[in-house]
Design brief:
Distance between the termini: 58 Å
Largest sheet: 9 strands, mixed
Shape: globular
Order of helices and strands: HHHHHHHEEEEHHEHEEEHEEEHHHHHHH
């Protein structure tokens, strides 16, 4: 593996050091072995994994490497392809365990008060140029409003509002065989490969339960599960609530979905019409507690009606199974869901998700997705630890605490006190003296607020 990571130019030396440190810190080799990725003979698995992992950072594409004979590994392309196509490697288990180790050992110690959340969402994994891909399906792209060939990459991630770590994913084909271009190849039903393919043809609202269970077994915990309106249904709310999680999600205003309100079955639109709305510039228009009914069972939930910023005449509905939360907290926590949209954009634009692997094997595509997830984990952790001084060690953890939330009045009194002291120490005789005193005041306050007063000093002068 050392040979693989050191085959970089001078600009890539720092990346090689970071990758080595990341692999050693989180025991990637042992983790791969525990997920059925181990050497039977020939090339060590870590050499192949390290080459594929580093390709995005320094090597370019594998095709150009072998064509130009630069940065060629000690093994051939066939070795790489065989590794990617291994059906017995449990990539879902691998990313789940790795994310659990990163979250529990490196990120959670930095947080004292932030709510941990799970975020579900899906994105299109396009494969338009090849119709021989295993389990390829015709899927609808909600962002573009068109049908395309590929998969729906259903992803579970963890976030504390500052750092997002992807946990696991499923490349969903279509549950309807008519929409599948190709079927799965025959496999032993006892193998990991068969379970992976069976899960790919599962309905998304059921597949999220498998991803949650895998995360739970790996040791990742969170109180809230967030998702958008494509997954928010009574059956989903009941199933996730039964697993011990609270749900906060956007919900559709469809006439097919009824809730218990005032002992009546009513739609969200009907509930909205029969209640008085909040006036002024309130963050929300209405908040009610309803009953979510499924198979005769009812769980309470709070629905918050929020004004749509894109269309002031419309409103959006956010539902929370934790009725003890305030409306402001429900809106604030749901806002953390945006992190996964940034994750999808970054993976597609920079980490070459769906572009780097052109294999026809479903196993190879799954392996490629897992490698992209690990790249993002490393970059996300690097970003967090470089920005947060508390990650430098226990010494800084003891010295620095969470920044106190001072009020606006307290901040202004502090500024005025410094300004008053500055004037008392100087005699004012003309405008130029005022400017000098102001500059002294800015210098006095700069050590407390170095950035905020930079522009003010420039404009005043």
């Amino acid at each position: 593996m050392n040979n693989i990571l050191t085959q970089t130019n001078n600009n890539g030396n720092q990346i090689s050091k970071s990758v080595k440190k990341f692999f050693k810190r989180f025991h990637i080799s042992s983790l791969l072995r525990s997920c059925n990725a181990y050497k039977e003979k020939g090339i060590p698995v870590m050499d192949i994994f390290a080459y594929l992992f580093m390709m995005i950072f320094s090597f370019g594409s594998m095709y150009m490497n072998f064509k130009t004979k630069r940065n060629i590994p000690s093994f051939g392309k066939d070795t790489i392809y065989r590794f990617m196509k291994q059906a017995n490697i449990n990539w879902l288990k691998f990313t789940s365990r790795l994310s659990a180790t990163i979250i529990n050992s490196a990120i959670k110690p930095l947080n004292n008060k932030c709510e941990d959340v799970f975020i579900f969402d899906d994105s299109i994994f396009e494969r338009n140029r090849s119709k021989r891909v295993e389990l390829l399906a015709k899927v609808y792209d909600h962002a573009k409003g068109v049908y395309t060939f590929g998969f729906r990459m259903l992803t579970l991630s963890w976030s504390d509002g500052n750092t997002l770590i992807p946990i696991n994913s499923i490349l969903l084909s279509s549950e309807n065989s008519k929409n599948r271009i190709n079927d799965a190849k025959a496999m032993d039903k006892r193998t990991v490969g068969y379970r992976r393919r069976r899960l790919s043809s599962t309905k998304a609202t059921l597949a999220i339960l498998d991803l949650l269970e895998a995360a739970k077994k790996s040791g990742v915990s969170a109180k809230y599960v967030l998702f958008d309106s494509w997954f928010t249904f009574p059956s989903t709310l009941h199933a996730i609530k039964a697993k011990g999680y609270e749900v906060i999600g956007m919900i559709k205003k469809t006439p097919k979905m009824l809730f218990k309100y005032n002992n009546k079955d009513m739609t969200l639109s009907s509930i909205y019409k029969c209640n008085k709305k909040r006036r002024g510039k309130s963050k929300y228009l209405l908040s009610v507690v309803v009953g979510v009914v499924k198979d005769g069972k009812v769980i309470p939930a709070k629905v918050v009606y929020v004004r749509n910023r894109s269309n002031r005449k419309e409103y959006l509905c956010i539902i929370s199974t934790d009725t003890s939360l305030s409306e402001e907290d429900i809106i604030r926590i749901y806002g953390k869901r945006w992190d996964i949209e940034v994750f999808f954009k970054f993976c597609k634009s920079y980490l070459k998700l769906s572009k780097e692997c052109r294999s026809l094997s479903f196993d190879a595509i799954t392996a490629h997705t897992a490698i992209v997830f690990v790249r993002y984990m490393m970059l996300s952790l690097e970003k967090r630890e470089n920005e947060d001084h508390r990650s430098l060690g226990e010494y800084y953890l003891k010295i620095f605490d969470e920044l106190p939330n001072i009020t606006f009045e307290e901040a202004m009194l502090f500024v005025l006190d410094v300004f008053k002291e500055t004037f008392l120490q100087n005699d004012v005789s003309c405008d130029s003296e005022i400017v000098k005193i102001y500059n002294k005041f800015v210098e006095s306050i700069r050590k407390y607020l170095p950035v905020c007063f930079r522009d003010f000093q420039h404009n005043f002068s």
